[in-house]
Amino acid sequence: MKDIPLHQLSDRTSSGLQLKHFRIGDLPEDKADELGAHRDDHYIFFLLEKGSASMMIDFEQVNLHQGVLYYVLPAQVHHRIRNEVAAGWFIAVDTSLIPPACRNIFESGLLLQQPHLLDDAQLRQFQNLLLLLHEKCDEDAADPFHIPVIHALLQSFILMAAGCFNDNIAAGGNVSRPAELSRNFKKLLVAQLRSNKSPSAYAASLNVSESYLNESLKKITGLPVSYWIQQEIMMEAKRLLYYSQLNVKQIAHQLGYADHSYFSRFFRKTVGVTALQFREQYRK
Protein backbone atom coordinates (compact mmCIF):
# COMPACT_ATOMS: atom_id res chain seq x y z
CA MET A 1 0.00 0.00 0.00
CA LYS A 2 1.69 3.19 -1.17
CA ASP A 3 0.97 6.42 0.66
CA ILE A 4 2.42 9.86 -0.11
CA PRO A 5 6.18 9.70 0.58
CA LEU A 6 7.34 11.72 3.58
CA HIS A 7 10.92 13.02 3.39
CA GLN A 8 12.56 13.51 6.78
CA LEU A 9 15.34 16.03 7.21
CA SER A 10 16.99 13.89 9.89
CA ASP A 11 17.76 11.31 7.19
CA ARG A 12 20.03 13.83 5.46
CA THR A 13 21.53 15.93 8.26
CA SER A 14 21.86 16.02 12.05
CA SER A 15 22.17 19.82 12.29
CA GLY A 16 18.55 20.62 11.42
CA LEU A 17 19.71 22.48 8.31
CA GLN A 18 20.48 21.54 4.72
CA LEU A 19 21.82 24.33 2.52
CA LYS A 20 22.56 24.05 -1.19
CA HIS A 21 23.51 26.53 -3.89
CA PHE A 22 22.24 25.43 -7.31
CA ARG A 23 23.36 26.72 -10.68
CA ILE A 24 21.77 26.86 -14.11
CA GLY A 25 21.86 23.40 -15.65
CA ASP A 26 22.30 21.48 -12.38
CA LEU A 27 20.58 18.08 -12.35
CA PRO A 28 18.86 16.49 -9.31
CA GLU A 29 21.22 14.47 -7.16
CA ASP A 30 18.72 11.64 -6.72
CA LYS A 31 15.79 10.21 -8.65
CA ALA A 32 12.30 11.59 -8.20
CA ASP A 33 9.68 9.37 -6.61
CA GLU A 34 7.31 7.38 -8.79
CA LEU A 35 4.71 10.15 -9.05
CA GLY A 36 7.24 12.94 -8.64
CA ALA A 37 5.71 14.31 -5.45
CA HIS A 38 6.18 14.07 -1.69
CA ARG A 39 5.70 15.75 1.66
CA ASP A 40 8.47 17.02 3.92
CA ASP A 41 8.55 17.08 7.71
CA HIS A 42 10.40 20.40 7.54
CA TYR A 43 10.34 23.83 5.93
CA ILE A 44 11.97 24.52 2.57
CA PHE A 45 12.99 27.99 1.39
CA PHE A 46 14.05 29.00 -2.11
CA LEU A 47 15.88 32.14 -3.14
CA LEU A 48 16.25 32.66 -6.89
CA GLU A 49 19.23 34.76 -7.95
CA LYS A 50 19.00 34.26 -11.71
CA GLY A 51 16.61 32.85 -14.30
CA SER A 52 13.22 31.30 -13.55
CA ALA A 53 11.82 28.11 -12.07
CA SER A 54 8.50 26.50 -11.26
CA MET A 55 7.07 23.90 -8.92
CA MET A 56 3.71 22.25 -8.31
CA ILE A 57 2.30 22.60 -4.80
CA ASP A 58 -1.08 21.07 -3.91
CA PHE A 59 -2.26 21.16 -7.56
CA GLU A 60 -1.18 24.75 -8.13
CA GLN A 61 1.84 25.74 -10.19
CA VAL A 62 4.02 28.36 -8.55
CA ASN A 63 6.29 30.33 -10.87
CA LEU A 64 9.48 31.82 -9.47
CA HIS A 65 11.83 34.31 -11.08
CA GLN A 66 14.93 36.33 -10.30
CA GLY A 67 14.92 38.02 -6.92
CA VAL A 68 12.06 35.96 -5.47
CA LEU A 69 11.93 34.36 -2.01
CA TYR A 70 9.55 31.44 -1.47
CA TYR A 71 8.87 28.70 1.07
CA VAL A 72 7.11 25.34 1.26
CA LEU A 73 5.42 24.32 4.49
CA PRO A 74 5.74 20.93 6.17
CA ALA A 75 3.11 18.47 4.88
CA GLN A 76 2.35 20.41 1.68
CA VAL A 77 2.52 17.97 -1.22
CA HIS A 78 4.88 19.22 -3.89
CA HIS A 79 7.03 18.20 -6.82
CA ARG A 80 10.71 18.98 -7.06
CA ILE A 81 11.53 22.46 -8.23
CA ARG A 82 12.21 22.67 -11.96
CA ASN A 83 15.36 24.78 -12.03
CA GLU A 84 17.06 23.87 -15.29
CA VAL A 85 17.33 27.56 -16.15
CA ALA A 86 17.67 29.00 -12.66
CA ALA A 87 20.35 29.67 -10.07
CA GLY A 88 19.84 30.26 -6.38
CA TRP A 89 19.58 28.75 -2.93
CA PHE A 90 17.75 25.78 -1.37
CA ILE A 91 17.40 25.87 2.42
CA ALA A 92 15.74 23.01 4.34
CA VAL A 93 15.07 23.79 8.01
CA ASP A 94 13.84 21.61 10.86
CA THR A 95 10.53 22.97 12.18
CA SER A 96 11.91 23.13 15.72
CA LEU A 97 14.39 25.80 14.55
CA ILE A 98 11.63 28.13 13.34
CA PRO A 99 10.72 30.61 16.11
CA PRO A 100 7.00 30.49 17.07
CA ALA A 101 6.44 34.10 16.00
CA CYS A 102 7.85 33.28 12.55
CA ARG A 103 5.78 30.11 12.26
CA ASN A 104 2.69 32.20 12.94
CA ILE A 105 3.57 34.32 9.92
CA PHE A 106 4.55 31.49 7.58
CA GLU A 107 1.53 29.35 8.49
CA SER A 108 -1.09 32.07 8.83
CA GLY A 109 -2.54 31.96 5.32
CA LEU A 110 -5.50 29.78 4.50
CA LEU A 111 -4.65 30.15 0.81
CA LEU A 112 -1.42 28.99 -0.80
CA GLN A 113 1.49 31.27 0.11
CA GLN A 114 2.73 33.53 -2.67
CA PRO A 115 6.34 34.33 -3.69
CA HIS A 116 7.84 37.53 -2.30
CA LEU A 117 9.84 39.77 -4.63
CA LEU A 118 12.89 41.19 -2.87
CA ASP A 119 14.24 44.63 -3.65
CA ASP A 120 17.91 44.99 -4.61
CA ALA A 121 19.05 45.73 -1.06
CA GLN A 122 17.13 42.78 0.41
CA LEU A 123 18.44 40.40 -2.25
CA ARG A 124 22.02 41.48 -1.57
CA GLN A 125 21.55 41.03 2.18
CA PHE A 126 20.11 37.53 1.77
CA GLN A 127 22.89 36.55 -0.62
CA ASN A 128 25.60 37.74 1.75
CA LEU A 129 24.01 35.98 4.70
CA LEU A 130 23.59 32.69 2.83
CA LEU A 131 27.15 32.81 1.53
CA LEU A 132 28.42 33.26 5.08
CA LEU A 133 26.15 30.49 6.35
CA HIS A 134 27.38 28.21 3.57
CA GLU A 135 31.01 28.91 4.49
CA LYS A 136 30.35 28.22 8.17
CA CYS A 137 28.59 24.93 7.34
CA ASP A 138 31.75 23.79 5.54
CA GLU A 139 34.09 24.65 8.42
CA ASP A 140 35.47 22.26 11.03
CA ALA A 141 32.56 20.62 12.84
CA ALA A 142 34.84 19.86 15.80
CA ASP A 143 34.70 23.52 16.85
CA PRO A 144 32.41 23.61 19.94
CA PHE A 145 30.72 26.73 18.56
CA HIS A 146 30.18 25.28 15.08
CA ILE A 147 26.47 24.41 15.45
CA PRO A 148 25.57 27.46 17.62
CA VAL A 149 27.08 29.79 15.01
CA ILE A 150 25.24 28.01 12.18
CA HIS A 151 21.96 28.18 14.06
CA ALA A 152 22.48 31.85 14.93
CA LEU A 153 23.00 32.71 11.24
CA LEU A 154 20.01 30.54 10.34
CA GLN A 155 17.86 32.43 12.85
CA SER A 156 18.84 35.68 11.13
CA PHE A 157 17.76 34.25 7.78
CA ILE A 158 14.43 33.01 9.17
CA LEU A 159 13.65 36.31 10.89
CA MET A 160 14.49 38.27 7.75
CA ALA A 161 12.30 35.93 5.66
CA ALA A 162 9.41 36.23 8.12
CA GLY A 163 9.69 40.00 7.91
CA CYS A 164 9.28 39.81 4.13
CA PHE A 165 6.08 37.76 4.39
CA ASN A 166 4.64 39.68 7.31
CA ASP A 167 1.88 41.54 5.46
CA ASN A 168 -0.74 41.26 8.20
CA ILE A 169 1.21 42.84 11.04
CA ALA A 170 1.02 46.59 11.51
CA ALA A 171 4.03 48.82 11.95
CA GLY A 172 3.52 48.74 15.71
CA GLY A 173 3.82 44.97 15.72
CA ASN A 174 0.22 44.35 16.78
CA VAL A 175 -1.96 41.75 15.10
CA SER A 176 -5.69 42.38 14.75
CA ARG A 177 -7.92 39.99 16.68
CA PRO A 178 -9.56 38.58 13.50
CA ALA A 179 -6.12 38.00 11.91
CA GLU A 180 -4.83 36.27 15.04
CA LEU A 181 -7.97 34.14 15.26
CA SER A 182 -7.67 33.16 11.60
CA ARG A 183 -4.07 32.05 12.16
CA ASN A 184 -4.99 29.99 15.20
CA PHE A 185 -7.91 28.44 13.33
CA LYS A 186 -5.60 27.42 10.46
CA LYS A 187 -3.18 25.69 12.83
CA LEU A 188 -6.02 23.95 14.65
CA LEU A 189 -7.63 22.89 11.37
CA VAL A 190 -4.45 21.22 10.12
CA ALA A 191 -3.92 19.45 13.45
CA GLN A 192 -7.50 18.28 14.03
CA LEU A 193 -8.93 17.82 10.54
CA ARG A 194 -9.37 14.06 10.81
CA SER A 195 -11.20 14.22 14.14
CA ASN A 196 -12.94 17.61 14.05
CA LYS A 197 -15.13 18.81 11.20
CA SER A 198 -17.58 20.99 13.12
CA PRO A 199 -17.40 24.82 13.00
CA SER A 200 -18.87 25.02 16.50
CA ALA A 201 -16.22 22.62 17.84
CA TYR A 202 -13.41 24.73 16.37
CA ALA A 203 -14.98 27.86 17.85
CA ALA A 204 -15.19 26.17 21.27
CA SER A 205 -11.54 25.11 21.05
CA LEU A 206 -10.61 28.71 20.29
CA ASN A 207 -12.81 30.03 23.14
CA VAL A 208 -15.01 32.16 20.90
CA SER A 209 -18.56 31.89 19.61
CA GLU A 210 -19.17 30.27 16.25
CA SER A 211 -20.63 33.51 14.92
CA TYR A 212 -17.54 35.50 15.94
CA LEU A 213 -15.21 32.93 14.35
CA ASN A 214 -17.26 33.13 11.16
CA GLU A 215 -17.22 36.91 11.24
CA SER A 216 -13.45 36.98 11.76
CA LEU A 217 -12.70 34.57 8.93
CA LYS A 218 -15.02 36.43 6.57
CA LYS A 219 -13.25 39.67 7.42
CA ILE A 220 -9.80 38.22 6.70
CA THR A 221 -10.59 35.79 3.86
CA GLY A 222 -14.09 36.62 2.69
CA LEU A 223 -15.33 33.09 3.44
CA PRO A 224 -16.82 31.28 6.48
CA VAL A 225 -15.45 28.52 8.71
CA SER A 226 -17.39 25.74 6.98
CA TYR A 227 -15.83 26.63 3.63
CA TRP A 228 -12.28 26.31 4.96
CA ILE A 229 -13.01 23.02 6.72
CA GLN A 230 -14.45 21.67 3.48
CA GLN A 231 -11.50 22.99 1.46
CA GLU A 232 -8.94 21.37 3.78
CA ILE A 233 -10.78 18.03 3.67
CA MET A 234 -11.00 18.10 -0.11
CA MET A 235 -7.37 19.13 -0.51
CA GLU A 236 -6.17 16.25 1.64
CA ALA A 237 -8.52 13.86 -0.20
CA LYS A 238 -7.15 15.03 -3.57
CA ARG A 239 -3.58 14.59 -2.35
CA LEU A 240 -4.27 11.01 -1.29
CA LEU A 241 -6.19 10.19 -4.49
CA TYR A 242 -3.48 11.51 -6.75
CA TYR A 243 -0.27 10.78 -4.92
CA SER A 244 -1.08 7.52 -3.10
CA GLN A 245 -2.40 4.08 -4.03
CA LEU A 246 -5.02 4.05 -1.25
CA ASN A 247 -8.53 3.18 -2.41
CA VAL A 248 -11.50 5.47 -1.75
CA LYS A 249 -12.64 3.52 1.31
CA GLN A 250 -9.18 3.69 2.86
CA ILE A 251 -8.93 7.41 2.12
CA ALA A 252 -12.34 8.02 3.70
CA HIS A 253 -11.28 6.21 6.86
CA GLN A 254 -7.94 8.03 6.95
CA LEU A 255 -9.83 11.33 6.84
CA GLY A 256 -12.08 10.28 9.72
CA TYR A 257 -15.18 9.12 7.85
CA ALA A 258 -16.59 5.81 9.11
CA ASP A 259 -19.10 5.78 6.23
CA HIS A 260 -17.10 5.82 3.00
CA SER A 261 -20.32 6.12 0.95
CA TYR A 262 -21.07 9.44 2.65
CA PHE A 263 -17.52 10.60 1.93
CA SER A 264 -17.90 9.62 -1.74
CA ARG A 265 -21.15 11.61 -2.05
CA PHE A 266 -19.55 14.58 -0.28
CA PHE A 267 -16.54 14.49 -2.60
CA ARG A 268 -18.69 14.36 -5.73
CA LYS A 269 -20.94 17.18 -4.55
CA THR A 270 -17.97 19.39 -3.67
CA VAL A 271 -15.57 18.64 -6.53
CA GLY A 272 -18.10 17.89 -9.27
CA VAL A 273 -16.73 14.44 -10.16
CA THR A 274 -16.40 11.18 -8.28
CA ALA A 275 -13.22 10.41 -6.39
CA LEU A 276 -12.23 7.76 -8.95
CA GLN A 277 -12.94 10.12 -11.85
CA PHE A 278 -10.70 12.71 -10.19
CA ARG A 279 -7.91 10.14 -9.85
CA GLU A 280 -8.23 9.07 -13.48
CA GLN A 281 -8.35 12.65 -14.80
CA TYR A 282 -5.31 13.90 -12.93
CA ARG A 283 -3.17 10.81 -13.45
CA LYS A 284 -3.45 10.94 -17.26
Write structural notes for this entry.
The chain has 284 residues and is α+β, with helices and mostly antiparallel strands. It folds into two domains: 6-165, Jelly Rolls; 177-282, Orthogonal Bundle (Arc Repressor Mutant, subunit A), CATH 1.10.10. The protein has helices spanning 100-106, 120-137, 146-165, 177-192, 199-205, 210-221, 225-243, 248-254, 260-271, 275-282; strands spanning 6-7, 17-22, 37-40, 42-57, 60-65, 68-72, 78-79, 86-94, 116-117. It is globular and about 60 Å long. This is Transcriptional regulator, AraC family. Pfam families: HTH_18. Residues 183-281 form the HTH araC/xylS-type domain. One of its GO terms (molecular function) is sequence-specific DNA binding.
Can you say what the CATH homologous superfamily of the largest domain is? Regulatory protein AraC
Sequence of secondary-structure elements: EEEEEEEEHEHHHHHHHHH
Q: Estimate the helix proportion, in percent.
A: 40-55%
Total DSSP helices = 10
What is the straight-line distance between the termini?
Answer: 21 Å
Structural class by SSE content: alpha+beta
Mean pLDDT: 86
Contiguous low-pLDDT stretches (5 residues minimum) are 168-173
Give the CATH level 1 class of the largest domain: Mainly Beta
